[in-house]
Amino acid sequence: LSVTQAATDEVLIARIAQGDRLAMQVLYGRHHVRVYRFGLRLVRDEQTAEDLISEVFLDVWRQAGKFEGRSAASTWMLGIARFKALSALRRRPEEELDDETAEQIEDHADDPETALAKKDKGSALRQCLARLSADHREIIDLVYYHEKSVEEVAGIVGIPEATVKTRMFYARKKLSELLKEQGIDRGWP
Amino acid sequence: MNAMKQEAPERQEIEELLPWHAAGTLSRRDAQRVEDALANDPELASRYALVREELGETIRLNETLGAPSARALEKLFAKIDADPAKDYQMGPLGSGSDYSAYIEHLGLPALNIGYGGEGDGGGGDYHSRYDTFEHHSRFDDPGFVYDALLAKTAGHMVLRLANTDVPVVQAGDFADTVAMYLGEVKKLADNRREAAEVQAKAIADHVFTDTEDPTKTNGTPTALKQVPKLDFKPMDDAVKQLQKSAKAYDDAFAANAAKLSPDARTKLWAAIQPLDQTLAPDVGLPGRPWFKNLVYAPGRYTGYGAKTLPGIREAIEDERFDDAVKYMTLTADALNAYSAQLDKATAVLKGR
């Protein structure tokens, strides 16, 4: 029976609180890719995202004793990652500018990228997902990729559950609008 | 906004849940509601197809993002090794024949150390027929690596404590830990009170009788005892004082411990040695007076597991609210005695 097979995240965190480095490695192995991707989608810079995960897991190491297990460990870590990502963005104001400009980019109907996107709806959708605002990217990722419930998203983002639902709705609506600009009409909204 | 306004409220609500339904993160009840709506509403079903498309592409997009380099892990452990906040947290001691008499009866500091992590040390053979030399040497610790390491660790600790010129006490950590325990106990009282109130209202509103399954004989549950508003002020004050005294001690120690005269060192030891015994006044816990420590005890019903601030915590759990009030004062008195003893040590450190 090894730690990797037997221990739940909660058990690992309890061991980390006791200074168990092996448990730290196992927890890192389990979650670092997802935490990295969540951070990368927010900060849009691989080096910053990589720095971010060592900061997130250092916090896990330090705060493990205070983890109460009221939420899933992944939810707790994504919450920390979000906080660190926003702090990193605040330190780099140009990133935020990138964010806004990305949102406002007008599409040119004839550029080669668009022409290609029209051929492949999937890739067009992915392009539009990348062009959403940070708030919208974040909620879409949390719901679809990180499989977080309404309640968990509310906890990570720090907004009421009702707002989570409406924000997701508007993120999806915005996605449809961006697709329409690319000439793909989904028939909704 | 228009898209939402045009829909009937219920459909709108269901539509908002579609992303979570696609991701499989809805409660069973909500998932069923969505399923029913999808079966009866082709328009909604076509929108659900869009949601599933988004879900698939979001996953594909994220999967293309790759993973951090191996350097990230190295960097993390370099940071962990260099972390100034690195400290080994200790859990509270509960029941153990090795140390119960010291910490819980006499109020003498005790420490229980061990190595684990690879299959939880003993792997479940403790006190079983597998608790043998053969099993231990073949499976638990082949080559006796951990056994030797543990002996060395304990040896180092004993030497460190025996040879130190000045006491090894981190008063601030203890004070913060007691503050945390107090927070837990308050929350326990609040949760119990709320549970009793909710249940009382449900009984008064005939919720249990109205929803009763006539084929079963459950009946209405026994009413929970109402939890009175407990006055935590004695403990709040005591913990506040403890944190203040602890900080003063830690600061004075950091500033002056290294330069104390031999005479002052003797006085400091005299002040620190009876420190922990202040937590175990000659009163004892209700129904088991042998257990005197008012901060740590094994739980009455938790086997080896510890209960912290046991006089108060277990009184709330067992609905003995008179005891809770009584032990609130007793525990606060013990903490105040601890703070006063620390203050004596601080005075020595400051050359008074």
Describe the structure in your own words.
The complex is a heterodimer of chains A (189) and B (352). Chain A is mainly α and 189 residues long. In chain A, 77% of the residues lie in helices and 0% in strands. Chain A has helices at residues 3-6, 9-17, 21-43, 46-63, 73-91, 93-104, 112-119, 121-131, 134-145, 150-157, 161-181. In chain A, helix 3 crosses helix 5 and helix 10 (150-157) crosses helix 11 (161-181). The longest helix of chain A has 23 residues, at 21-43. Chain A is elongated. Mean pLDDT of chain A is 84; it is low at 1-6 and 99-110. With 352 residues, chain B is mainly α. Chain B contains 14 helices and 2 strands. In chain B, helix 2 crosses helix 3 and helix 9 runs antiparallel to helix 11. The longest helix of chain B has 34 residues, at 171-204. At the A-B interface, helix 3, helix 4, helix 8, helix 9 and helix 11 of A face helix 1, helix 2, helix 4 and helix 5 of B.
